[in-house]
Amino acid sequence: ILKKPVLGKAECFAAFDCDADGGLSFSEFKLICRALFKNDITGEIYEISEEKLKEIFQVFDIKKDGVIDLDEFE
How much is the pLDDT for 21? Predict the structure, then answer.
C-alpha cells in the first residue's frame, strides 16, 4: 500500500514562506489559517476575523518581531 508522504515542519513552513525570507509575515500566516480553516467537503472557508487572526499571530510570534520563524512555528 502506498502512503502519501508526510511533510515535516520545515517543509510545511517553507510552503507558506512565500518570499523565502525565513519568516512568516502576518499575510503569510493568514494563508496558513485559510488552508487550515477550509471545509474539505464544500471548500468553504470558516470565517475568522482579522482581529482574531492578529491575536493568534501574536501568540506564535514569541520574539515579538512581527514574523514567525521556524523555531516559533513549532
Answer: 97
- CA gap 56, 21 in Å, rounded: 21
| Residue 26 domain flag | yes
Assigned domain for 4 exists: no
First-last CA distance in the chain: 30
Global pTM value: 0.77
CATH of the domain at 55: 1.10.238.10
In percent, the amount of the chain with pLDDT more than 90 equals 58
Domains: count for the chain: 1
Mean pLDDT computed over 27-39: 85
Q: Which of 33, 2, 20, 1 is nearest to 10 (CA)?
A: 20
Phi, psi angle pair for 22, to nearest 5°: 85, 5
37 part of a folded domain:
yes
